[in-house]
Amino acid sequence: MRQSSDIFLTALAPAIWGSTYLVTTQMLPEGYPVTLAVLRALPAGLLLLALTRCLPPRAWLGRTFLLGALNFAVFWSLLFVASYRLPGGVAATLGSLQALMVIVMARGWLGTRIRKGAVAAAIAGVFGVALLLLGPDAGLDPVGIAAGLGGAASMAAGTVLSRKWQPPVSALSFTAWQLTAGGLLLVPVALVVEPALPALTPVNLAGLVWLGLVGAAFTYWLWFRGLSRLEPGAASMLGMMSPVTAVILGWLWLGQALTPLQIVGALIVLSSVWLGQIANRPSAVLPGLALAPAVSRPR
User: Fold this and answer.
1) 42 within domain boundaries
2) Transmembrane segments in this chain: where (predicted)?
């Protein structure tokens, strides 16, 4: 029962992330992706720091900024490049490769065995996302493809290392550290590559509040909490809930058509997520490493 609860709560994070496209396109000004990413991450991180009153010790600063870069700064920046240069379906399909990357990285960094069932579930999930999102206009821009793959690799590395490096603090504090670090790293990028943000409307502010408080502070707390309790491969499969939510919201709020092929794709994705939880159970850890602690503390 406890593991089922952990899976459900962790799955809430990517399911809510699926609202990002709707909120961004309908409520936020166009042309300021990095600046908006800063406003999504940094205020949320500072708010959580104020609530937890727990700053990272000096020994954890390097790891915190590396994780903040992988999970936020690098990932979001490459995601925006891919989104601008590729149709949304292509970018999302490349992002779904993250589950396969996590399986490989977890083998190297955590000693988790690569299991055929987990690989099959991840491949099925990618296929389902492709059916759900790919259309006839799926162009293949080389820079966009590289950015999409790089973003998936960045998030995959952040997922595995967030499990490997578990500090002796609450998940809320760990979330605060990473959001703040990621936001700080994005500030100079926004100042260099984007013009000043125009005056924000009440609708813009509401969108930022949603993305910051719910889409960042709340969901990443759920996500990092889940990574401390679930195998990385299982958690990464839950990430495929995001495109399913995005398509459903587009159908409900924007009146976008939902084809039979997309319905089949959504069912394949949901089935692959379920199978991924079974295939990535803790028994997948190599026998010689089964008793090794999941926490790596700085010396």
Assistant:
1) yes
2) 32-52, 64-84, 90-110, 117-136, 142-162, 174-193, 205-223, 235-254, 260-279
